[in-house]
Design a protein that fits this description.
Elements lengths: L1 E7 L6 H9 L6 E8 L5 H11 L3 E6 L4 H11 L4 E4 L10 H12 L3 E10 L4 E3 L10 H10 L9 E4 L15 H12 L3 E13 L2 H4 L6 H23 L4 H19 L7 H13 L7 H11 L3 H42 L1
Length: 345
């Protein structure tokens, strides 16, 4: 009935928790598709062990191609009437699938969009979805997805399988969820948003969180540019009044990507040209003076100045990441200290 797709890459620390949370579901009519995306740790072995014990679990081993390619592979072979995406370091409460399926059946929805809790490295769990806007009509929900006032995550939602026909994740780029969600939601005739948290989103892996340094941030911003450019195209067709705000987001991400890339050459010539043409085509859109100045530098080919700015921005990103890491480590130490005190009592 439900195909659960999990892309797996070097997550041996968290993978068993994710799989066990599926095995513990009160709703049992599912298949679990684990896509081992070229893991170099024991993740692939863990997948195979679970598949031996439960015929509902299927494992695909492939060379490393990234999370988008892994998810696409799972969608391609899914046999269920409904698609559900779970990240391998996240997990579900035991009634998640049952409640999602019940809502979908009773409402006739094409998508049931549930809330989620965030699990921090120090063990603190808090609800991220409590402050989502209260939206009732499909059009209002679709517009919120285009504007990203409702989060564009593919995980944590139950989709009718046909929504994924002719839609796949963009391979080789980050921010793939932000890229693909508007297309999915525009195909839906009925959407239910329930802010009740039915998903645990993990922020526990400090190494993963801190992996995006000033250099990788250029690729992150480029992926964000592509995603917001896609949002602009969707908005032009369905919500023309929102197209300019989407374009502004795309321009900001594009300018940041080009600036961060200056002097290190992470972006290809084709990617840089793509950005430059987009900025040039949107010169009439009002932006902050700082972004206007950076765009003038980009279009004027003032590479030396961009190299200096890029170096400064990368240092700032690295500094902010170090501060964030220290803050999280302090919280983790405080949490462990409190835990030890409770154990002594």
């Amino acid at each position: 009935m439900i195909s659960i797709i999990v892309p797996v890459y070097n997550v041996q620390k968290y993978l068993e928790r994710a799989i066990n949370s599926i095995l513990d579901q009160s709703f049992s009519c599912w298949e679990l598709i684990l896509i081992d995306d070229g893991s170099t740790d024991s993740s692939g072995i863990i997948c195979d062990q679970y598949a031996k014990d439960d015929r509902r679990i299927r494992v695909i081993h492939q060379r490393n191609q990234g999370v988008s390619a892994a998810r696409n592979c799972g969608i391609d072979i899914a046999e269920g009437a409904y698609i559900y995406c779970l990240d391998p370091d996240d997990y579900l409460p035991s009634d998640a699938l049952e409640l999602l399926y019940q809502r979908l059946m009773t409402t006739g929805a094409d998508i049931v969009f549930a809330g989620h809790n965030r699990v921090e490295a120090d063990g603190y769990i808090h609800c991220d979805s409590g402050n989502w806007p209260d939206l009732q009509t499909v059009r209002d929900i679709q517009k919120a997805i285009v504007k990203n006032t409702l989060p564009n995550f593919v995980w944590g939602k139950l989709y009718k399988r046909e929504l994924w026909e002719n839609i796949r994740m963009p391979v080789g780029y980050v921010m793939e969820d932000l890229y693909v969600c508007p297309k999915l939601f525009m195909k839906a005739r009925r959407i239910v948003v329930d802010k009740t948290p039915l998903y645990f989103y993990s922020h526990e892996n400090l190494q993963s969180i801190m992996a995006v340094d000033g250099i990788k941030y250029a690729k992150l911003r480029y992926g964000k540019f592509l995603a917001w450019r896609e949002h602009e195209l969707v908005a032009m067709q369905y919500f023309p009044e929102e197209a300019e705000s989407c374009a502004k987001e795309a321009i900001y991400a594009a300018a940041r990507a080009r600036c961060l890339d200056a002097g290190i050459g992470i972006l290809t010539d084709q990617e840089k040209m793509e950005i430059d043409l987009y900025i040039q085509a949107h010169t009439g859109i009002s932006e902050s003076k700082a972004i206007q100045w950076i765009n003038q530098l980009i279009l004027g080919h003032h590479e030396r100045i961009l190299v200096v700015l890029g170096s400064i921005q990368r240092m700032l990103v690295n500094y902010q990441q170090r501060r964030r890491q220290k803050k999280m480590q302090r919280k983790l130490a405080e949490r462990m200290k409190i835990s030890r005190k409770h154990m002594e009592i």
